[in-house]
Write a structure and sequence with these properties.
CATH architecture: 3-Layer(aba) Sandwich
Number of strands: 9
Structural class: alpha+beta
Number of domains: 1
Shape: globular
Helix content: 10-25%
Number of helices: 5
Distance between the termini: 5 Å
CATH topology: Protein Transport Mog1p, Chain A
CATH class: Alpha Beta
Length: 233
């Protein structure tokens, strides 16, 4: 089940319902969550939203590279680019997503890729170029954001052209290419907009987690770690 009716899948091959891969090792997937979005702030307060997202991602042991608000299929949406440690401890994986929230549900487009046998080359080259004193920087979304994977300049988009085959470059450019082509079902676009009742000044532990099974007993909304690929469709 998904609210997405069409998007540009050039270069991708479907592996299962809602999941595609390409020859570079990218994984593209679409998701639908039939529960109130757990975004920690409204989209019309982007600075608060970015700060809260960065704190929650760091608390989960990962790192928010960048986040922002825009539109997907003519609806307001949230873009996130996250780095995580690979489960086998060898290098990192990079996950980009657009989340389109409505009042009681959301749909997500996600692109992810991991480092291969060679890891750390991009970081080493940039560190050598800019020097250690300029390499690690405070997180741009708040000096109080600590923990998780460190923020550094090698993840910046300005280095993508220097490393066209890096998984971070592939994820960022592919997500940028696909997002404008997404078409949403009119039943989804006609739903009431996402409008949280409160906008906390500090972010709670809102790291997204896997969506709960629809047959589970009623209870508090589960948190979804979207970068661990939870699906409810």
């Amino acid at each position: 089940m998904t609210a997405i009716t069409a998007m540009d899948l050039t270069g991708f091959t479907e592996r299962e319902a809602g999941v595609w891969t390409d020859e570079r090792g990218l994984v593209l997937s679409v998701h639908f969550f039939d529960l109130v979005p757990d975004l920690p702030a409204p989209l019309d307060r982007p600075e608060l939203l970015r700060h809260a997202l960065a704190r929650s991602v760091a608390a989960a042991g990962a790192g928010l590279i960048e986040a922002g608000c825009g539109e997907v299929g003519s609806l307001p949406a949230v873009r996130q680019l996250v780095k995580v440690r690979r489960p086998d401890g060898h290098g990192q994986a990079f996950i980009g997503s657009w989340t389109v929230p409505r009042a009681g549900c959301s749909t997500v487009v996600k692109v992810q890729a991991g480092e291969g046998a060679m890891t750390g080359l991009r970081e080493a080259v940039v560190l050598d170029r800019v020097g250690p004193e300029r390499y690690f920087t405070p997180h741009p979304y708040g000096p109080d954001i600590t923990g998780g994977l460190p923020h550094h300049v090698a993840d910046a988009e300005e280095w993508d052209a220097r490393f066209p085959d890096h998984p971070l470059t592939h994820v960022r450019t592919t997500l940028a290419r696909i997002a404008p082509t997404v078409v949403l079902h009119e039943g989804f676009t006609s739903l009431p907009p996402f409008a949280p009742d409160t906008a906390p000044d500090t972010a709670p532990d809102t790291a997204p987690d896997a969506a709960p099974d629809a047959s589970s007993p009623a209870g508090p909304p589960a948190r979804r770690r979207w970068f661990r690929r939870g699906r409810s469709d």
